[in-house]
Design goal:
By secondary structure, the protein is mostly helical. The chain has 8 helices and no strands.
């Protein structure tokens, strides 16, 4: 058994199950480094590179299994959907303390569920919160960046979960 890393980074090869898993692991590690070190503008560009390599690894695995490359849409689409949902949940969690502080400053009893729900539906308060976020850009940016790791984890959880299906694919009988 030989493991060939070029199947991760060079399209148009065939990837065995072992090559496929190695490719996903290396790409996930690079993605974690990207998220930790790259500034936001560069991180977005590098995300597109990550998606390219994830697609290449899946297509190479599909090629080895004699399947259509169009199946690559499944892990990329579901992974990206999970990434968006994870990011929104992470950002909402990051913004909640900022929102609670703002509402307390506006005199809302945040201990009362009814008062909190009423405040969340008050358009004037929510517009005020938007102005508060714009006035405190650094704090808002930090709160919004809380979605980065949850989105990455959600993406890779889906990609790795679907990876079991891709890794077990065998060539179809002719």
């Amino acid at each position: 058994m030989t493991i060939d890393l070029k199947t991760a980074f060079w399209p148009a090869h065939r990837a065995t199950s072992d090559d496929f898993w190695l490719a996903l692991g290396v790409i996930a590690l690079i993605d974690a480094v990207r998220l930790s070190l790259a500034p936001s503008g560069l991180a977005l560009f590098l995300w597109l590179v990550i998606v390219f390599f994830v697609a290449a690894a899946h297509i190479n695995r599909l090629r080895d299994a004699g399947r259509q490359a169009a199946l690559v849409i499944v892990p990329l689409g579901l992974g990206t959907a999970a990434k968006v949902i994870g990011g929104f949940l992470g950002m909402a969690t990051g913004l909640m303390p900022m929102l609670i502080d703002y509402l307390e400053g506006e005199g809302v009893d945040v201990q009362s569920q009814e008062a909190l729900q009423s405040a969340m539906q008050d358009e004037a308060l929510m517009e005020g919160f938007q102005r508060f976020m714009l006035a405190n850009e650094a704090q808002a940016a930090q709160a919004l960046s809380a979605g980065a790791w949850p989105s990455m984890i959600a993406f890779w959880a889906v990609v790795f979960a679907l990876g079991f299906w891709f890794a077990r694919m065998r060539p179809r009988a002719a």
